[in-house]
# Entry
Amino acid sequence: MYTKRTTFSIFLMGMMMISLSACNGGSSNRPEAFLQSAIAARLADPAACPSGDSQDVQQIVDAAVSGGVASLPEGCYQITTTITLPPGIHLVGGGAEKTILYREPGKLYSQPILRVKGGRDAPAGTQISGLALVGVRDTDDTGEDYGLLLTNVPDFRVDHCYFEGFGFAAVRVEGISNGVVDHSIFMDNFKRAIDNLGYGVVVYGPGTWAADPQPGGAQATFVEDSLFSGNRHAIAANAGAHYVFRHNQVQRGVVACAVDAHGMGYGSAHGTRYVEIYNNVIEKPVYNWCGIGIRGGSGVIFENTIKGYKNPILLILEWGTPDSLKVEYPAFDQIQELYIWDNQIKGGRSKPQVDQTGIGFIEAGRDYFTEARPGYVPFVYPHPLASGGAFDSEPWPPEGK
# Structure
C-alpha cells in the first residue's frame, strides 16, 4: 500500500527522469537541467524531505527584525499557505539546490508561495536570495499560482533563485514597484491545461499611462543575467508597466512569443508603457512563431541574438483591445516610438514584421524605427542592487556536473 509520502517520491523521481531525458545528451551542458534534477532528487528522498512546512518558514520570517535577515536553513519545506514577508526584509536560503520551498502534487493552489506587500512608505531593500520555489509540476494541473508576488515594493532584489512549475507566473511584480531579478533560473513555468498563462516574470504597472516615460532609469523592473527554459513567456507586462530585460538567456519557449509586452486589453485599463530589451540570447524554441512580440507601448530593442524563429521580432496590434478603441489610427495604447536596431537574427526574417492586425496602424518610420533611439543611454550594468549578496561570488550560471 502506497503512502502519500511514497506517492510523492515516485512522482518526483519521475520528474527527475523526465528532466534528464530532455537534456539533449545529458545535463552536463545544461546547468538548469542539472539543477532541476538535483532538486527533484532531493525532494524524492524521504530521509531529507520534508524537513519543515509553511509555519516553520513563517516563524523564521516573523523573528527577523525590520530590515534584518531571515536565514532559512537547508532543507525542503512543504508550503500549503502563503508566507508573508514585510518589505525591507532579507530572506536568504542556503542555495537553490539546498533550500527548497515546494507544493505537494495533487493539490490545487492559486496563491503565491511568498508574498511581499508594501505601500506608499514601504521600506526599501527587500531581498529574496538562495532559494528554490517549486510548484505543482503537472501539465494537467489548473492552479493559477505564483512563486513570488511583490506588490508596491521599492528597490527589491530577487537573486540566485530557482523557479519551476507555476501556473500563472514564477514571479509577479505589480503596482508601484521597482528593483531587479538577477542570476535566477526559470524552468517549465507553463501548464497545458491552462494554456494561456505561464510566465517566468510578469510585470503589472500601477494602471496609469505615463505621459513621458524615462528610459534608462532606475524606476523600472529589471530582469538580468537570468536563464529561462520551457516557459510560455520569459517575461510579459501590462497595466502601464516599464521593464528592462537584458543579458538573459531564453530557450525552449512554448506556445507564444518568448519575450512579450501586452497592449491594452484582457482586464487592464492600459497596456505596457515601455520596454528595454537588449543583449539577450533567445533561441532553441519549441514553438518557433515569435521571438520578441510587442503588442503596445514604446521602447527600445537592440543587440539581441535571436535564433530559429519565423518572426524574430513581431509587432502586433493587441488582439484584446476593444474594437471601439481601434477603429482608427492611432489605436489605444498601440505601438509608437519603438526603436529596433542591431539585432543578430538567424533562421528568420531579418527585419521586424508587422502582424496582420497592425496593418494600417503600425508603420515603419512613423510608429517604429529601425535605428538607434536618439540620446538613449542604457542604465548602468550590472544593476546597482545586484551586488553584495551572499551568493554573488559564486560562478554563474551554476556549474552542472
Notes: The helical segments are 4-21, 31-43, 54-63. Confidence is low (pLDDT under 50) at residues 1-28.
